[in-house]
């Protein structure tokens, strides 16, 4: 996809940035005499790497025995990555919605101090009657959560991801 000549070491990236901001007010290290540290660039590169927006290959320097890292960006993947994240969030919300819809509990409002919750199967077994006092078991209201989750899902679905 990219020719190897386009790969660049973290040291060269640092030097290039320093050169391009020379004579400007830009200072990436306000607490330090340097305007940009190699370490800051490395940290940023690893952050991009962990988000799959940068890649590297490393080569051992035969004279020093140290690794040299050659980096390149994968910014053309950004749309795909964001789409992936969007699906992931939507999936989690849907799972939670399903959980809320399938797992509502039944309680006896007459003996609430007992705080016994019955799931649907248990309530069904009990004929929806409290085994303690015989009052009807009522579904505990989780409509608010369900509505909240539905709104969230609609919101996520409406997010348009396109980078032009
Ligand atoms: Zn009861």
Verbal overview:
The chain is of the alpha+beta class and 164 residues long. It has 2 domains: 70 residues, Arc Repressor Mutant, subunit A, CATH 1.10.10; 81 residues, no CATH class. It contains 5 helices and 5 strands. The strands form 2 sheets. A 3-stranded antiparallel beta sheet has the order 1-3-2. Strands 4-5 form a two-stranded antiparallel ribbon. α1 crosses α2. The two termini are 20 Å apart. Bound molecules: zinc ion. Zinc ion binds next to loops. The site of zinc ion has 7 residues, from loops.
- Report strand %: 5-15%
Molecular shape = elongated
Overall pLDDT metric: 89
Number of self-contained structural domains: 2
Listed once per kind, the bound small molecules are: zinc ion
Strand order of the largest sheet: 1-3-2
- Over all CA atoms, what is the radius of gyration? 29 Å
Number of strands: 5
Number of helices: 5
What is the first-to-last residue Cα distance? 20 Å
Topology pattern, helix = H, strand = E: EHHEEHEHEH
Structural class: alpha+beta
- State the helical fraction: 40-55%
Largest sheet descriptor = 3 strands, antiparallel
Ranges where pLDDT stays below 50 over 5 or more residues in a row are: none
What is the topological layout?
Layout: E1 8-9, H1 10-21, H2 38-50, E2 54-60, E3 67-73, H3 78-102, E4 106-107, H4 120-125, E5 138-139, H5 143-158
Antiparallel strand pairs: 1-3, 2-3, 4-5
Helix pairs in contact: 1-2, 3-5
Bound molecules: zinc ion.
